[in-house]
Amino acid sequence: MEEITIDLDAPSKAGLEYMAGAIKQGKVIAIPTDTVYGLATSIKSDTSIKKIFEIKQRDERKAIPVLVNSVDMAKSIAKISKSEMEIVEKVWPGPISILFVKRKKISDVLTSGKDTIMLRIPDDKFLNILLKLIDEPITATSANISGEKSFTTAEDLIARFAKEKCQPDIVVKVISYAQKQHKNKPSTLITIIGKGQDTTISVLREGCVSEEQLLHILNKKG
Questions:
Q1: CA distances from 167 to 49, 53, 74, 138, 170 (A)
Q2: Closest C-alpha among 153, 154, 106 to residue 1
Q3: pLDDT value of position 178
Q4: Closest CA to 118 of 155, 74, 181, 149
Q5: How confident is the model at residue 109 (pLDDT cuts 50, 70, 90)?
Q6: Fewest CB atoms less than 10 Å from the CB: which of 22, 25, 104, 140?
Q7: Is 212 helix (H, G, I), strand (E, B) or coil?
Q8: Does the 2-81+99-186 domain belong in CATH 3.40.462.10?
Q9: How many CB atoms lie within 10 A of CB 82?
Q10: Of the given ranges (50-59, 109-118, 146-155), which has the lowest mean pLDDT?
């Protein structure tokens, strides 16, 4: 594993370009997010996506979630209805991932053969700068072995994967953002059911936003 350090308050252009280039080339990078450390790579590379499954020892039937930096980018890979957009505008950016119908061009390896894809826009300055520089969606699954705890520090991640044959290519260590205090929980996963006034939300996984908090967000901004 290569280790690099980024100052989150003032990330260097060279450092950002190095990370962006590595991701676009299909490297798997462990990066800090607005939730926990995640494994980022290009969604265009089936080889890299398969490596993430191997790193995580993840069931290949479990799809990989994706980060985007705008609604337009989300729409480029998913079909988002008017009713879904009303929810999107209330919860993004933030640690809430939404299940949509994917567009046909999206790899079945990424979505485990399903016709759906899980997306979110992160609420994080560093991540959104990186996504803008890459100019394409990236993977966003947590950087841990399936069934084990997620990581909030690069040091713990490095120590754990040092024991494994299959590792991330690069691990991004951080300084500043008060040493990046993570929420220590992954994003909350939701699906939107119905249309118009009949629209309802189903929580598939409660993460750092509880169902009660989610309902408060929807009602407050509704």
A1: 13, 11, 29, 18, 9
A2: 154
A3: 57
A4: 74
A5: very high
A6: 104
A7: helix
A8: no
A9: 9
A10: 146-155
- Residue 196 confidence (pLDDT) above 80: no
What tokens appear for 14 in the block?
Answer: 């060279």
Name the token pair of 221: 């901004």
Domain coordinates in residue numbering, the chain: 2-81+99-186
Element (H, E) at 19: helix 13-24
Backbone angles phi, psi at 192, to 5 degrees: -105, 125
Q: Beta strands 78-79 and 188-193: pairing type?
A: unpaired
Task: Give SS3 for 55.
Answer: helix
Mean pLDDT of 99-107: 96
Extract the tokens encoding 117. 């894809």
Distance in angstroms between the alpha carbons of the first and the last residue of the chain? 46
| Predicted confidence (pLDDT) at residue 212 exceeds the cutoff of 70 | yes
> How high is the pLDDT of residue 183?
59
Q: Report phi then psi at 58, rounded to 5.
A: -95, 140
- Contact in structure between 186 and 150 (CB atoms under 8 Å): yes
For residue 17, what are its two tokens?
């370009």
Query: Distance between alpha carbon 8 and the CA centroid of its chain, in Å?
Result: 18
- Give the confidence band of 222 by pLDDT, cuts at 50, 70, 90: very low
Query: If you search the block for the tokens 């994706």, which residue do you land on?
Result: 66
